[in-house]
Design a protein that fits this description.
FAD/NAD(P)-binding domain, 414 residues, eight-stranded mixed sheet, binds flavin-adenine dinucleotide, globular, alpha/beta
């Protein structure tokens, strides 16, 4: 792998950029690997990376039916925060957020992490009390958040209408080191590092069956042939139910489309991320100048990776109340991704009834921010059979009624 540096850019500039090598190899599938990861999104790639980096397991294939990051990883609104209420969630999201701080250096790939600060607006008394409770919980968990009032909100985000026609802004839950990162770059950075460790990234390779024998996983069938493995990690977000059926069990998740849209690019006008959960809409400004806007989930189970007009109308209406200046913006693109939602709005990182087969899913509307922490914990679970970060996120919690209720922190799409 060519190391990226200022020196490398200068050297390549002097020789017409003829010396760059491919970011990752394009290998043919081998008949067998120690570990196969299904799903070339952020979580699958991060899992493979930490398997290699933390446990020296490098005979690994990452099998992706489309292109890397073509699922939700490349479709999200890139928000990163760790201000969750429950201890297990705060632990994994804060681990992820802290890994994001140095991810570019770690991967030698610029993931454009921008800890510009994030606020979740409280627009009802109830919401205000809820966020105050979260701030207290975050203090105990070692997550740095605070409550700020309308004057400070207006100072941080002058384009906001804090008086609001329907709901005035009463305060906000502020996380100064929350922010955004470039989502494709996160997938590409991990992929490049995995390939450099000798792992095989198999794009355009769909898994069509999971092979097992005597209750143990033996491998997978793919559109490019059979691949054997001792351990299988399934990290396919909205398709988790489909893969679970191949493995012979059912998951307590529903798959629904979540939507987002971006405006035409404009001059810098907002250097924080704002989530307005009561009116439902959230917005940040990308480095290109587009206003990146998150909408809601469809109210019915489906597998469409498209946007729909009623969501645009609802979301834009909510945001115009909060940011009147965007009423004159043209919207450029809209899209959707299939998110995998659990009843308690917390993820599943777990062993399964099929020995050797592990599932990492249920990140729903908010898993981009978790990618490094999830990969770190899931790799440990796959390598050692247990991980403190994943301990509470097992499938058994649904049988035992040990829910990790994050419906307030994760109820809004983000
Ligand atoms: C519109 C939208 C906005 C969002 N905004 C945010 C946000 O601001 N912040 C945040 O934290 N999160 C956000 N999310 C959620 C976040 O994007 C996801 O939780 C996260 O990207 C999930 O990553 P993943 O790697 O698990 O899944 P994915 O990136 O979806 O990767 C799964 C991969 O599995 C592959 N696959 C599926 N079936 C098979 C098969 N049979 N064989 C081989 N491969 C297969 C798919 O092609 C896909 O590439 C948003 C999501 C959406 C849709």
């Amino acid at each position: 792998m060519t190391r990226y540096s200022a020196f490398a850019i200068a050297r390549e500039a002097a020789r017409y950029h003829s010396g760059w090598t491919r970011a990752w190899r394009k290998p043919e599938p081998k008949p067998r690997y120690d570990v196969v990861i299904v799903g070339g999104g952020g979580h699958g790639l991060a899992t493979a990376y930490y398997l290699g980096k933390n446990f020296g397991i490098t005979n690994v294939a990452i099998v992706e039916k489309g292109w890397l990051g073509g699922g939700n990883t490349g479709r999200n609104t890139t928000i990163i925060r760790s201000n969750y209420l429950q201890d297990p969630s705060a632990a994994i999201y804060e681990k992820a957020r802290s890994l994001y701080e140095t991810l570019s250096q770690d991967l030698n790939y610029n993931v454009m992490f921008s800890p510009r600060g994030l606020m979740m607006l409280a627009q009802t008394e109830h919401e205000l009390r809820g966020y105050q409770r979260t701030v207290h919980a975050n203090r105990l968990q070692g997550v740095e958040t605070e409550m700020i009032g309308p004057r400070e909100i207006k100072r941080l985000c002058p384009i906001m209408n804090v008086d609001g026609p329907r709901y005035p802004v009463l305060g906000a839950l502020w996380q100064a080191r929350g922010g955004t990162a470039r989502h494709d770059a996160v997938a590409w950075g991990y992929a490049r590092a995995c390939s450099d460790m000798g792992m095989d990234i198999l794009q355009n390779t769909e898994v069509t069956a999971i092979r097992s024998e005597g209750g143990r996983v033996r491998g997978i069938a793919t559109t490019r042939g059979e691949i054997g493995c001792d351990r299988l990690g399934v990290v396919v977000a909205g398709h988790s139910g489909v893969l679970a059926e191949m493995a012979g069990f059912r998951l307590p998740i529903e798959s629904v489309a979540l939507q987002a849209l971006v405006s035409e690019p404009i001059k810098p006008c907002m250097d924080v991320v704002v989530m307005a959960n009561t009116v439902h809409g959230y917005m940040s400004q990308s480095d290109k100048g587009e206003m990146v806007i998150g909408g809601g989930t469809d109210g019915f189970v489906n597998y469409t990776q498209r946007g729909s007009f009623h969501h645009i109308e609802e979301t834009v209406r909510a945001l115009i109340e909060t940011f009147p200046m965007i009423s004159r913006l043209k919207m450029l693109r809209q899209w959707g991704g299939i998110v995998d939602v659990t009843g308690d709005r917390s993820p599943i990182l777990s062993k399964t009834p099929l020995e050797g087969c592990f599932f990492n899913c249920g990140w729903g509307t908010g898993g981009f921010k978790a990618i490094p922490g999830s990969g770190w914990g899931f790799a440990e679970l796959m390598a050692k059979g247990a991980s403190p970060l994943c301990a509470e996120f097992g499938l058994d919690r649904f049988r035992e009624g040990r829910f990790i209720d994050e419906s307030v922190a994760a109820g809004v799409a983000h």
